[in-house]
Design goal:
globular, alpha+beta
């Protein structure tokens, strides 16, 4: 639609003209419990007070709504048909001080954008919640939708009697007639306002803090979920992590939590992990665990809780001026979330997870053709939407981790404290933060910023070692390389660790370590000269910098033979990550990586690392293995997973992880028979609890291999007739190996908008099954014929899901690459965000072809 994609230039001009004094937003959502067309829209009335620096000028307000009933500017009635085009309200002849009143009919969402309406299939109850980032509050109320036009907000929501309604501020008074009025917020951006409404199950607690000056702070805490999930809701653990986080940030930020209450709402059909709405944080309800999960899942949830809490300061209190500096909130929240996780909670191994999982996400993103500097060039809202990526989050966080090492933790935190006090309730740019860090550290950060924040790409670090006749190191150097497309060689502060066994039966342990500042293509490490020959040289030991790690030949041989004997879990995680990087880059055959997983993953103590290995092994099988080896490699991997499953401690998280990995690989008749037995109770594995979530996990491969039909899937839904069960059912139905099934799934997702966002995601997940290449082959040309229309007709969230999820990754061959190249060549004028996604998927495919060629070149293996 014209005007829907706000540009940076438009936002800059509007920001120059306007300042916003206040919003009063009144929503009437009683229609949510109606049926038919009456349940499609709700009333939204906004009173917006703002100033204009140039009286007489024109601008526009943002609103995405089916209809506008009335528009009044400074007491003057405007003709809605003349001033509203479906996305914008034209405002001419502004005064110095202005009052705009807009009465509209806005649409409930089924895509997770704006005000989402969910009907619980279990009991028919209706639940609402909002999700706006980066620019969907305009689907709910008229506003100036850009982060720098902050203002205080006062919300009033009229809802069905008996509903619980939450917003950013605390509710004031009762709810007579279903009308809930909330305290006016501090000045905040439009995209972090929030409303949650419905018959939610609610648990309360409070946080108290006495500061050194004797002042006291009390924060009311709330946690809520759908009634159907109440029996699974471990609110006590959520409150524990919340209080630990508040303690941590109060200890380090010297700026008390500024937004009054703190509610954590776990909501259905949520597109994101969570959103940092001040006072009313929203989370995807999958963080409420319906069955047994590993400790890595609890760690992940705690990390997300702390990530969103860090945003209360980095993002909500102080907000970037435009999406170019998205890193000022996301990179900092990602880093501070991990920092708080390790320092304040029971998850003391959080930096291992960060090194192995978060940074793997960053390394992938930084090698795509769409890679960008941490401080990105964001032209418009579509650019902004796609830049919530591994660079903005994980690379930015890794860079900040290095910055802490560079300027010192005390200087870094003191810089944050000054930043909050200097810019509270305001908007900032890159230079604002660098200025305070230069003040506190005494360092010139301009060159550091140019290297780390303003250039793209990832460096590779490789050790080079020579020895004398007595097997002592004569010289050890670190070689730094960069891709030709992004040739920047950066400064790195790293540790180099030397590892060896004390004797033939002992573990690999570090016996020497040196820190060094790497710069340029070659840096010597003279502190390690003269030491005995190591079996393993690990550059970037302890994960101090952001770089791909390579090995010298001797170290690589050690890892091939004795990776499981490496004692330190962080060192082991770094080695696993580096080996996966070699495999992705086509420098190690996929069969070698899979062999390492089969031989050594069973010794991995860190459950998060183990689950990463399982996911990477599956990618290696499906994407990176030579086609003529895939069947054998899958069989061998499944056999190895079943072996480890039977060896794992009964009832342990490792046992559950191996069970899920085995289920994902099961294809042989005997394996599928075992899965059937686990479902019907005729087979058992000591200690393995086949709960409802695991039952659905088992059912998907049975459906994909034609063992479980529609009746079996329907019977499972009857056991679990819940929202979660419905998503699982939809995925399993789409997984069945039938041309008719695939055609129906395709039509439901591509040709219709009847499915909600969660069911679109589930259908795509079931549709694209490894091992069904012949069934899916007809959809290669259909995909490229459809995606531009999908991008134009569907909401950006659904369009992104379709374009990414249905890209024909199941067909790793040159013909698919040629089809992608042909589409890109023929659609040069397509939306840049759409082209970016196709380019990224095309790059993944080209990488897979290179990896397969590497695996093929390794030759036959007995």
């Amino acid at each position: 639609m014209p005007g829907e994609n706000l540009s940076r230039d438009e936002a800059r001009e509007r920001g120059r003209l306007l300042s916003v004094d206040a919003y009063d937003v009144a929503l009437d959502v009683r229609s949510a419990v109606a049926s038919g067309p009456a349940a499609e829209t709700f009333r939204s009335r906004t009173t917006l007070r703002f100033s204009c620096a140039e009286p007489g000028a024109s601008t526009f307000a943002d609103l995405l709504a089916p209809a506008v009933t009335s528009v009044t500017l400074n007491g003057r009635e405007l003709d809605p048909a003349a001033v509203f085009d479906g996305t914008r309200i034209t405002l001419d002849g502004l005064a110095a001080e202005n009052t705009l009143v807009v009465d509209a009919r806005c649409a409930y969402s089924r895509t997770g954008e704006g005000l989402h309406r969910f009907v619980d299939p279990e009991d028919g109850e209706v639940y609402l919640y909002t999700q706006y980032e980066p620019a969907d509050s305009r689907r709910v109320f008229a506003n100036f939708e850009q982060p720098d036009l902050k203002a205080p907000f006062t919300f009033e929501v009229t809802a069905p009697e008996g509903w619980r309604v939450l917003s950013n501020g605390a509710q004031e008074g009762g709810a007579e007639g279903g009308r809930h009025r909330f305290a006016t917020t501090e000045p905040i951006s439009t995209y972090i306002t929030a409303v949650v409404a419905g018959p939610y199950h609610y648990v309360s607690d409070s946080y108290r803090r006495t500061f050194e000056d004797g002042t006291e702070l009390e924060i009311p805490l709330g946690a809520l979920c759908r009634k159907g999930l109440a029996k699974h809701f471990d609110a006590d653990d959520i409150f524990t992590v919340t209080k630990q986080g508040l303690d941590f940030f109060h200890d380090h930020f010297d700026f008390p939590y500024p937004f009054g209450k703190y509610d954590s709402a776990f909501v259905p059909e949520y597109n994101l992990g969570a959103m940092e709405n001040p006072g009313c944080v929203t989370f995807r309800e999958e963080f409420i665990f319906r069955g047994k999960v590993t400790d890595a899942s609890y760690e992940s949830r705690a990390n997300v809780i702390l990530h969103e809490m860090a945003h209360m300061w980095f993002g909500d209190l102080v907000t970037m001026q435009w999406w170019n500096d998205l890193w000022l909130k996301e990179s900092y929240a990602d880093f501070m979330g991990a920092f708080a996780l390790v320092e304040a909670t029971r998850f003391t191994g959080g930096w291992i997870t960060f090194a192995n999982r978060r940074k793997s996400w960053a390394y992938r993103a930084d090698q795509l053709p769409s890679t960008h500097p941490v401080t990105a060039d964001i032209r418009d809202l579509e650019d902004a939407k796609l830049n919530f990526d591994g660079i903005t989050y994980a690379k930015g966080a890794a860079v900040l981790k290095q910055l802490v090492a560079y300027v010192g933790q005390d200087a870094f935190l003191e810089g944050a404290r000054r930043y909050f006090k200097r810019h509270a309730y305001g908007n900032t740019r890159l230079t604002d933060l660098l200025t305070v860090l230069e003040e506190t550290s005494g360092r010139d950060l301009a060159s550091w910023s140019r290297s780390w924040l303003e250039t793209a790409g990832v460096n590779s670090l490789t050790p080079q070692v020579t020895y004398d006749a007595q097997d002592r190191i004569t010289e050890l150097s670190v070689l730094q390389e960069a891709a030709p497309s992004h040739p920047e060689l950066r400064p790195h502060r790293i540790a180099v660790g030397l590892y060896r066994r004390r004797d033939a039966d002992s573990a690999l342990v570090r016996y020497a370590r040196a820190e060094v500042d790497v710069s340029g293509p070659r840096t010597g490490v003279p502190e390690l000269a003269g030491l005995e020959r190591p079996e393993l040289v690990l550059v970037n030991d302890e994960d101090l910098t952001y770089a791909k790690v390579r090995f010298d030949e001797g170290s690589l041989a050690t890892l091939r033979a004795r990776l499981g004997e490496l004692a330190d879990p962080m060192a082991r995680a770094l080695c696993w990550a580096a080996l996966w990087g070699l495999t992705r880059d086509g420098l190690m055959p996929a069969r070698d990586y899979l062999d390492l997983v089969r031989r050594f993953a069973g010794r991995e103590s860190d459950i998060g690392v183990l689950q990463s290995l399982h996911g990477q092994a599956q990618t290696a099988l499906e994407q990176y293995s030579a086609p003529d080896r895939q069947e054998r490699a899958t069989r061998e991997s499944a056999e190895g997973a079943l072996h480890e499953l039977r060896l794992a401690e009964p009832g342990s998280g490792h046992q559950l992880a191996w069970a899920r990995h085995f289920v994902a690989l099961a294809a042989a008749p005997a394996d599928l028979q075992l899965l059937q037995g686990l479902l019907d109770g005729t087979a058992k594995i000591d200690g393995l609890d086949v709960d409802q979530e695991l039952r659905w996990t088992i059912l998907e491969p049975l459906a994909a291999h034609g063992v479980a039909d529609e009746k079996v899937i329907a019977a499972e839904l009857a056991r679990d007739n819940t929202a979660s069960g419905k998503r699982h059912q939809v995925r399993c139905l789409a997984a069945r190996p039938s041309a008719e099934v695939k055609a129906q799934a395709w039509a439901q997702v591509v040709e219709s908008d009847a499915l909600s966002n969660a069911l679109v995601e589930a259908t795509i997940a079931g549709f694209a099954q490894f091992g069904q290449r012949e069934l899916l082959a007809p959809y290669l040309p259909r995909y490229f014929a459809a995606i531009e229309r999908v991008w134009q007709e569907r909401s950006i969230e659904i369009a992104m899901e379709v374009v990414r999820g249905l890209f024909p990754s199941w067909q790793v061959e040159q013909a698919t690459l040629d089809a992608a190249d042909g589409w890109l060549a023929g659609h040069a004028q397509a939306a840049p965000a759409l082209r970016r996604m196709v380019l990224e998927k095309r790059d993944d495919l080209a990488r897979a072809l290179r990896a397969q060629a590497c695996d093929e070149a390794a030759g036959p293996r007995p």
